[in-house]
Amino acid sequence: MIIGTTIKNKIEGTIINMNKTKTLFAGPWCGEFGWELFCWQGYLRKLSKNFGKVIVASRTGHEFLYEDFADEFYPYDTPASEANMWYGELDGHRRHEFLKQFEFNKYVEPFNIGYGMSNGEAIIFGDKFYNQEYIKYSANTIDEHYDLIVHPRNKIIGAERNWDKDNWQKLVDGLLKEGYSVAEIGTEEAFELDGVKDYRNISIRDTVSLINRTKLVAGQSSGPLHLASLAGTPHLVWSDIGNEPRYKKDWNPHGTEVIFCSKRGWNPTVNDIKNVIIKRLEK
Fold first, then answer.
1. 86, 105, 271, 283: least buried by Cβ within 10 Å?
2. 245: which residues sit within 8 A by CB, 6+ positions away?
3. What CATH code would you report for 148-281?
4. How many CB atoms lie within 10 A of CB 203?
């Protein structure tokens, strides 16, 4: 047994050393942001340790997610409707044409590493999901501090999950009257709210810098809320009950504080959310 283990370790060590002279290419990732955060970048970080050079391709502006381990980053943008959110994959012909410009020894195409959702419940069907390495994201580009950052989701895909803009405005108006400072993040697609500092459509790095310095991030289940988890910032999320294990356990590698509200699913009342926010901010 001891001899067998020694031989196995020597063989594995030789393979790793050989890989250290090789180049890994991964991507392009074209799926949703949340799935990139928890079912892709962590897997690549772990895999990268076995290669001498790592090249990653993903959407424009996403290089921040990989800069701690990737040697090169190449942007590739395509409409979300053209990619499977779980797999992040790209049409085979276009992927082939894109890859022709690179030289590499090992290629990793985006794939489902073993996590999915069915009837509101998580399904983990592969060990690769557990074989990831995460870092706690931090940045120092924007030195502004807020009591609350909101993400007023307004996506076309899954529009039934959006909260009405009137609800968002009533929420922030009420909090501002109570003396709390509020800012908003997200893409330009998110609702623009009156009276709050607008940080929509800024870089991921700048968004992380803001999230690092806020007391609480709030909104429906969405990419910015997942980012708050990886930044180690407390966040309030409302969604269907099936998403609770994902936020509290499956997609929470740092054990970040999560307040999950599912009493009324995607459409809680303004008072429901306001009361939870004030209670948390008063801690």
1. 283
2. 122
3. 3.40.50.2000
4. 15
**Average pLDDT over the chain, rounded to whole?**
90
The token pair at 180 is 């709390």
Structure tokens at 61: 């502006």
User: CB atoms < 10 A from the CB of 72, how many?
Assistant: 14
- In this structure, which amino acid lies at residue 254? H
Beta-bridge partner residues of 219? 237
- At 45-59, the pLDDT tens digits run 999 999 999 999 999
Nearest to 260 by CA among 237, 231, 283, 234: 237
213 phi, psi to nearest 5 deg = -105, 5
Domain positions in the chain are: 16-129, 148-281
CA–CA dist 218, 121 (Å, integer): 23
Pairing of strands 258-261, 235-238: parallel
